[in-house]
Description:
heterodimer; A: mainly beta; seven-stranded mixed sheet; four-stranded antiparallel sheet; globular; B: mainly beta; six-stranded mixed sheet
Amino acid sequence: DTGVSQDPRHKITKRGQNVTFRCDPISEHNRLYWYRQTLGQGPEFLTYFQNEAQLEKSRLLSDRFSAERPKGSFSTLEIQRTEQGDSAMYLCASSSGTGITTNEKLFFGSGTQLSVL
Amino acid sequence: AQSVTQPDIHITVSEGASLELRCNYSYGATPYLFWYVQSPGQGLQLLLKYFSGDTLVQGIKGFEAEFKRSQSSFNLRKPSVHWSDAAEYFCAVVPSMNRDDKIIFGKGTRLHILP
């Protein structure tokens, strides 16, 4: 499977715990995006990377959230001191450097479903 | 305010019937427009996109969409739905002034198919 891979698929945690999600983009895709999707809503942009550089962070990304892409390949999204409001599907997507304004597509993973109890 | 609106939260159609899902956007310039589908447990899949040119766009799975500048709309259509089309559909935009390809999604329309 050469698609975008996310791990784990599901995560249940207690409020106050830290969690980390991983995203493996399509090989050689240099852009990587994180989105969050809550029930009944469309995905909302969180942050994106061009290679290892984090170029933009949404206001949705509070200080408890941190994302890294240390070698320009896989990425991790960490949430510290989780709150019940963090319960959502966290989606990762990747694309080639020329972006989606050409004939390229943004490829999405299946997401990590986080439940904070 | 800049936005993308999907006025219908749920739509129910009978199998074999035609389908139209509505999408309106509010941006100063014509954005890049997309429709995605999300099935349970699956990632988002691109159905079709419009950047410029012919305003009637053909996509995968028999879907098409028509861009109407005068109505700021990009409605998705299918002449005959199949039970497997039951899913959540998202209209999305990339404002044309953006350089970072950040997609902004509508809230989605859930499609239910009656046998």
